[in-house]
Specification:
Belongs to the class I-like SAM-binding methyltransferase superfamily. rRNA adenine N(6)-methyltransferase family. This protein has 369 residues and is an alpha/beta fold. Helix content is 24%, strand content 16%. Helix 2 crosses helix 3. Bound molecules: S-adenosylmethionine.
């Protein structure tokens, strides 16, 4: 792993010599400004105006890439480099990075964002795939914590995560780092706009609400910040980007979530409604379900449930708020809702589980199947 304390980010290795010489993509035109997203119910908290440092970031990134001979950005690694230094500065500002902060940067690439972090006074710990470091296999506690403890000047000893992330690993990174409120206080990511909008959506009333939203809202407070147009990247991706921040909750801020093979207790704040045909729907589902833990709702008391291989007979449910549900789980636990399912036959074009008006619960079932 690569702790960086000076302006010397890791550089991409030249690609291995291909059979036919690859042509380097022509340098792109300087990027225009990036703008807030016009989409969805989420409004950007910050609107970034005209970029004074556009040409600086543009020229230094192109120079850096050109200096690497035949380096051709690799699509499989999401190597869409940032050309606009103003975007980097806004990423740093969104995370509130300042003197003495310790930052985990994922994918420093040419180092343009690293420069901005260092300029803000941070100590940066970078993880870059092209020098054999893969964030999805990264062990934060054994590799990063000792570094944080050594470098942190704050008594709280919380680090920050800032990254212009390869779009294809964004969900993996979110799943890996969000439950680490004991290590990180905030995570600010530049992601695909579509993904950022989806992750920041906190409303279970929308059809877009997915299991990942349950996860994100359980462990953090997400906020869509601003849109970054695709023209700010080189090579230019087919989609726009956006910056999203996740304020991580400390473990004390959410109900205890047991790790593997344990009992857990969790707030059912995301299961807020139930329709009369839900039970019927669930019975229909059992034909293809070997093991299922059902989270039930009850107005007054905690309900203990366990996994069962027999069809569910327990009638359930309810109206009104549920204080909590505890579940005894016999299998690894991924999520607060703890619904365990074997693979369910996927319908063509479907999500594996028939849709139902109780969409958050359906989503959770789908997530854990
Ligand atoms: C979108 S580029 C960002 C580069 C640079 N930070 C910038 O803003 O221009 C993503 C970077 O992440 C690196 N990367 C891709 N997959 C990775 C992984 N699994 N772990 C760590 N880094 C990865 C790529 O090599 C690339 O340098």
């Amino acid at each position: 792993m690569a702790p960086l304390t000076s302006l010397s980010p890791p550089l991409p290795h030249p690609s291995p010599s291909p059979a036919k010489p690859r042509r380097r993509p022509p340098p792109p035109p300087p990027p225009p400004h990036f703008t807030p997203s016009p989409r969805g119910p989420i409004r950007p908290a910050t609107i970034v105006s005209a970029a004074s440092g556009v040409t600086d970031g543009y020229h230094s990134t192109i120079r850096s890439l050109n200096s690497r001979g035949r380096h051709v950005p690799r699509k499989s690694l999401g190597q869409n480099y940032m050309l606009n230094s103003k975007v980097n500065e806004e990423l740093v500002a969104a995370a509130g990075v300042g003197e003495g902060d310790v930052v985990l940067e994922i994918g420093p690439g040419t180092g343009s964002l690293t420069d901005a972090l260092l300029a803000a006074g941070a100590t940066v710990f970078a993880v870059e795939k092209i020098i054999e470091e893969d964030i999805t296999k990264f062990n934060v506690h054994s590799h990063f914590l000792p570094f944080l403890e050594e470098k942190s000047h704050h008594s709280t000893k919380h680090a920050k995560v800032v990254s212009n992330l390869p779009f294809n690993i964004s969900t993996d990174v979110v799943k890996l780092l969000l439950p680490m409120g004991d290590v990180f206080s905030i995570m600010v990511l530049l992601l695909q706009d579509e993904t950022a909008l989806r992750l920041a959506d906190a409303s279970i009333q929308t059809p877009e609400y997915r299991p990942i939203n349950v996860f994100v809202n359980f462990y953090s407070e997400p906020e869509y910040k601003f849109k970054v147009e695709r023209t700010n990247f080189f090579p230019q991706p087919k989609v726009d980007g956006a910056v999203i921040s996740f304020k991580l909750k400390n473990a004390g801020e959410y109900p205890p979530v047991g790790s593997h093979k344990s009992s857990v207790s969790c707030q059912c704040q995301y299961l807020c409604q139930c329709s009369p045909d839900f039970l019927q729907w669930l019975h229909g589902l059992q034909a293809s379900v070997a093991t299922i833990v059902v989270v039930m709702r009850h107005p007054r008391e905690k309900i203990s449930l366990s996994s069962t291989s027999s069809p569910i007979k327990t009638p359930f449910f309810l109206h009104g708020p549920i204080p909590s549900v505890s579940v005894a789980a016999a299998a690894p636990i991924d999520l607060a809702l703890l619904l365990l399912l074997p693979p369910v036959r996927r319908e063509r074009g479907g999500r594996g589980i028939p849709s139902h008006p109780l969409s958050p619960l359906c989503a959770a079932l789908s997530c854990l199947s």
